[in-house]
Each structure stands twice: as structure tokens, then as C-alpha cells.
């Protein structure tokens, strides 16, 4: 996707999350959000079609195959946190809480504005 901003997306309540992924190591493509269902947890979280998934619940996705990603997603029971890369046209960090601030700081992403949303605010 080129250079862009990293955004932290958090969802709670368990599956279904309301999005579909594509890509993976075996396809030699970055893992990306292919589709988001209307009125889903994903649509209310700030996740966008075309977002590149950097990590899922702290697990890097760079070397995961699509089946490994599906297995990881199926193991998540309540809380989903995704670090995603988006082009510069969306320079906000959406957080349900402040849990990813330290991770982003350690990764060198210290200049992003932060918008904190709760599930109630997201609709």
C-alpha cells in the first residue's frame, strides 16, 4: 500500500466481526480487508475496505498464510484488536481504549492524532 498511517481498531463482543480478508503470505500479497458488512462491528469501528492488516491481537500478519489468519481469527472469543495500515488520507488512530498507545510508540508511530471511541459512540 505504500506509505501510510497505522491505525488501531478495537472491537468487542465476539464474532461475527463483519469483515472479510484477502491476501496472505502464500499469495505474496499483504493481508487486506476485502469487504465490510453494513451495520456490523467492523463498520462501526473505523475499519475500511483496502486497509492492510499489520497485526491481529498482537500477532504480526506479515508471515501468515490466509489459512493461518483464519485459524487465528477463529481463536478470538471476545476482544479483537487490529493494527492496520491506511493511506495518508485517513490520519486518525481509532481506539476503543488506550491499550495500543505503548505498542504504537514502540513501533515508532508517535505523531498520530488519537480518537477514542466506545462501542456506544460507534452506534
Automatic annotation (TrEMBL):
Chief localisation class: other
Compartments in which it is found: Cell junction, Focal adhesion; Cytoplasm, Myofibril, Sarcomere, Z line; Nucleus
GO molecular function term, any single one: actin binding
Key words, A-Z: Cell junction, Cytoplasm, Nucleus, Phosphoprotein
Record-annotated PDZ domain positions: 6-88
PROSITE patterns assigned to the protein according to its UniProt record, in alphabetical order: PDZ
Cited Pfam families: PDZ
A biological process from GO: positive regulation of actin filament bundle assembly
InterPro entries given in the database record: PDZ, PDZ_sf, Synaptopodin_domain
Annotated Gene Ontology cellular component terms: focal adhesion; nucleus; stress fiber; Z disc
Assembly description: May self-associate in muscle cells under oxidative stress. Binds F-actin. Interacts with ACTN2; ACTN2 is proposed to anchor SYOP2 at Z lines in mature myocytes. Interacts with AKAP6, PPP3CA and CAMK2A. Interacts (phosphorylated form) with YWHAB; YWHAB competes with ACTN2 for interaction with SYNPO2. Interacts with KPNA2; mediating nuclear import of SYNOP2; dependent on interaction with YWHAB. Interacts with IPO13; may be implicated in SYNOP2 nuclear import. Interacts with ZYX, FLNC, ILK. Interacts with BAG3 (via WW 1 domain).
Family statement: Belongs to the synaptopodin family.
Protein name: Synaptopodin-2
Source lineage: Eukaryota, Metazoa, Chordata, Craniata, Vertebrata
Underlying gene: SYNPO2
Amino acid at each position: 500500500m505504500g506509505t501510510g498511517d497505522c491505525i488501531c481498531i478495537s472491537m468487542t463482543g465476539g464474532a461475527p466481526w463483519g469483515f472479510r480478508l484477502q491476501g496472505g503470505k502464500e499469495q505474496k500479497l499483504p493481508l487486506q480487508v476485502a469487504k465490510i458488512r453494513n451495520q456490523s462491528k467492523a463498520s462501526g469501528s473505523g475499519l475500511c475496505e483496502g486497509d492492510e492488516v499489520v497485526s491481529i491481537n498482537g500477532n504480526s500478519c506479515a508471515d501468515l498464510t490466509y489459512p493461518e489468519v483464519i485459524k487465528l481469527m477463529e481463536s478470538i472469543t471476545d476482544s479483537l484488536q487490529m493494527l492496520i495500515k491506511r493511506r495518508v488520507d485517513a490520519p486518525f488512530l481509532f481506539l476503543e481504549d488506550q491499550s495500543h498507545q505503548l505498542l504504537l510508540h514502540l513501533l515508532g508511530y508517535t505523531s498520530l492524532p488519537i480518537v477514542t471511541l466506545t462501542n456506544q459512540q460507534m452506534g
